[in-house]
Amino acid sequence: SKQRIRRGKAQPQDSTSHQLFSILISCGGMGDYQKNIADIATKLLDADDSPVWYHEETVSRNLGLKAAPREGRRGIFTKVLQSIKRGHAGSKTNKVATGRPCADLYDESNGTNVRVVQHGRAVLFDGGTLTDDKRSMQPRYISFGKPRFHIQDQIGIARSIVGNDVTLPPTARTRRQKGWRAWFDGGNDGGGFGRFDVPASSKNTGTVVEDIGMHIPEPPLQLNRRHFKVDVLESLESELRMVLVAFGLATPRYRRDLPVVLGNNGNDLDADVAANDDVEAEDEGRSQGTTIRQHRSKYQSPLGTPYPDPLRLASLRCCTESGRIDWEKVEELTSLELVFLLVTEGEYSVSALPEKMAEAKVDMPTTITVEEKLAWAFVAKGGAYKLIKDARDELLSMMGPVYQPKDNELLHEWLRDGRSYSKGQRIEASNFEMNDGNRQLEISLEACFILRHIMFSFNLPIEVVIALWACYYVLIMRRPLPKEYFRSQSAVWVNIFRASLISDKLATIRFQEFVSKKSKYGFTRRFYVSTDDSDHFGCNRHVLLASDNAGGDEVDPSYRHLTSSVSITKDSEGNSNKNVDSLIDTYGLKCAAHLGGGTTDNASDARKETADTFTKVMAKLSANGELQDLTIVNGVERRPITFGDLFHVDNLVVTHASIAAWGDVTKEDHQQVHHRQVLQSIHSLHTADRGFSQEIMDEVMEGADESVSLKTSRERPQRWLVNQRNAKRVLSYLEMKTRFTLLPSLVAWGIAFHNWSRSEWKRRVGGEVATWLSMPEVILGLHYEAELGEYFEETYYWHNRTGPFNSRPGFRMMEVHDLYFHYMLPWWNDAIENPAAKMPKTFAYLDANFEGDEKEKRRAQIVRGIKAGRTELIKMTQKAGLLDGPVAFLIMCDKEHGPAFLRALLAVVDEGKQAGEPAISFLPDDCSELWGKFRYDDRSERPEDEQRWYDQLKKDPEDVVHWWRQLCLDWPILTDDLQRLSREQGPRACKGGPPLVAFRNTYPILYDCMHATFGLMMSNSRLCEQVHGMMRHGLRAGTGMDEADNHRSYAVGTDHDMKEERRKMVEPADTSTSTNRDSPPTKKKKKTERHCHTKEQQHELSRQLVERAPLFAKAAKAVIDLVPKVGTIVNRRRTQDEAHLAKKMEAERARRANMTREMLQPDQLVEMARATTLSNDPTMTHSDGVVDRRKKLKEMTTLAFWNKLKPNAEYKLMFRAAVSSFPHLDALIGRPSLKNERIDKPARPALTSKTAVMEVVVKPYLTNALKISRGMYEIMYGVKDSKNEVDKRERTLALMDIVNLFVVLTPSAWGDEVTPTVTLDLVGSFMTMDPHYSHFPAHTIEDTESQDDQNDNYGQVVEELAEVGGGM
Question: Within a 10 A sphere around the Cβ of 1150, how many other Cβ atoms?
Answer without folding.
Answer: 9
